[in-house]
Automatic annotation (TrEMBL):
The lineage of its organism: Eukaryota, Fungi, Fungi incertae sedis, Mucoromycota, Mucoromycotina. Belongs to the small GTPase superfamily. Rab family. It comes from Umbelopsis ramanniana AG. GO terms for cellular component: endocytic vesicle; late endosome. The keyword Nucleotidyltransferase does not apply. This is Ras-related protein Rab-7b. It holds the Pfam family Ras. InterPro entries: P-loop_NTPase, Small_GTP-bd, Small_GTPase. PROSITE patterns: RAB, RAS, RHO. One of its GO terms (biological process) is regulation of immune system process. The keyword Disulfide bond does not apply. GO terms for molecular function: GTP binding; GTPase activity. Keywords: GTP-binding, Lipoprotein, Nucleotide-binding, Prenylation, Protein transport, Transport.
Length: 181
């Protein structure tokens, strides 16, 4: 049976826009009030990959704020792909990607040979706001540093507010997952 439901976990600091990115992708809606996520849930959406496959993305969203985090292993278990999100206007959230990536690698309990291949993308959100502090070059350098010869981490600069690159980023991650036929 070809695997066609892909579990995608979205992680990053509180307030970077994980929930808004998912809402924009699924519902084409944006709200400017901030309500921190507590717990975790998923929403599914069917997408077509660039090479014409139809897959169902199961998009998992959870709390970025430390005081609400309690999920650990169960959130990451069985993940097929991971979106690391930072806020282009807040350097600390970019700096913390290292921690999020390490947490993911530790908790996902993937065998080392699979980790090398694991599909990851980087999303720099809130690009609609003028005062960016994380440059495109810095994001690319981070991605390059953490890519492996077999899996290139792609970087997107997106806006959950106006929709820039939201569809592109999630379609990209769907296309990166290798599905055994
Ligand atoms: P936690 O659930 O606490 O982990 O936060 P989160 O990463 O889910 O952030 P959320 O999506 O709730 O967004 C946080 C705040 O940033 C909200 O006030 C959003 O309206 C705002 N926001 C999110 N994305 C964007 C964006 O692309 N542009 C702008 N201008 N604001 C955004
Ligand atoms: Mg949230």
């Amino acid at each position: 049976m070809p695997k066609d439901i892909l579990k995608v976990v979205i992680i990053g600091d509180g307030g970077v826009g994980k929930t808004c990115l998912r809402n924009q992708f699924i519902h084409k809606r944006f709200t400017s009030s901030y309500k921190a996520t507590i717990g975790a849930d998923f929403i599914t959406k069917d997408v077509h990959t660039d090479d014409g496959r139809k897959v169902t993305l199961q998009l998992w969203d959870t709390a970025g704020q430390e005081r609400f985090q309690s999920l650990g292993v169960s959130y990451y278990r069985g993940a097929d792909a991971c979106c690391l999100v930072y806020d282009t206007t807040n350097f600390q959230t970019f700096h913390n990607l290292e921690r999020w990536r390490a947490d993911f690698l530790k908790q996902s309990s993937l065998p080392p040979d699979l980790l090398e291949d694991f599909p990851l993308i980087l999303i720099g959100n809130k690009i609609d706001i003028d005062d960016r502090v994380v440059s495109r070059r810095q994001a690319r350098a981070w991605a390059q540093q953490h890519s492996s010869p077999r899996m290139e981490i792609r970087c997107f600069e997106a806006s959950a507010k106006d929709g820039t690159n939201v569809e592109e980023a999630f379609s990209c991650i769907a296309g990166m997952v290798k599905i055994p036929q």
